[in-house]
Amino acid sequence: MTDSTNGRRHEPERHRGAVTLRRESIPPSTADEKLLDSHHRREWKTKDAWRALRILSEFVEGFDTLADLPPAVSVFGSARSKPDSPECEMAADLGAALAEAGYAVITGGGPGVMEAANRGATEAGGMSVGLGIELPFEQGLNDWVDVGIDFRYFFVRKTMFVKYAQAFVVLPGGFGTLDELFEAITLVQTKKVTRFPVILMGADYWSGLLDWIRQTLLKDGKVSESDLELLQVTDDVEEAVQIIVDADAALAAADGKR
């Protein structure tokens, strides 16, 4: 396939930190797979100690790059959503509204909902951040990212999503989005992080999951009523941003009394 803008052919490409691999240079597995897959037991003694240094370097790179960010909000959603889908339109509006409220917008840096949120923030004059990940089907960081980092390891990337965010906003998505959603809820529930808003947008999309949580988990005592209060649902962009602003104000007031 040829890119009509410059006549070049689209070729397979994978990013490993600062390294870009194309065509036959792309390995059949990812760094995460090599670290976690038990089939690579023979490498545990010979390579894992050195992998620890690579992991440390990713933390250092992330901390150093993101330390000067303004207050930020992490926005999650499907990479497979079409640009004209309701969730992408909502994500673009959300990105713009967050930027206008003084927040940077952090996404996974990919296409779909992530690209829409980055675009909204950039077009509104805000800071747009993309935290990419090495995947076999990776498409690279979208063009609306101002500050982008490509990670090898999911758990390093997840730390950056949480550490630099005042809130999580979760739009319709698949397994990756669900992973981030439940990780955020678990961290807040277990008080591993200072409580911050976790907002679901796309009420119809999330209604089945929320019903199951209430009718199965809550009914069976696996979660409590207070756990359900960790999630807030709205399809109103202004309301979502106001929830975040109010939470920040409440936290600042609490800090002032200490």
Automatic annotation (TrEMBL):
Residues 1-34 are annotated as: Disordered. InterPro entries: LOG, LOG_fam, LOG_family_nucleotidases. Its EC number is 3.2.2.n1. It comes from the Bacteria. It holds the Pfam family Lysine_decarbox. It is an enzyme of class 3 (hydrolase). Keywords: Cytokinin biosynthesis, Hydrolase. It catalyses: N(6)-(dimethylallyl)adenosine 5'-phosphate + H2O = N(6)-dimethylallyladenine + D-ribose 5-phosphate; 9-ribosyl-trans-zeatin 5'-phosphate + H2O = trans-zeatin + D-ribose 5-phosphate. The keyword Hydrolase applies. Gene3D superfamilies: 3.40.50.450. The keyword Hydrolase applies. Belongs to the LOG family. This is Cytokinin riboside 5'-monophosphate phosphoribohydrolase.
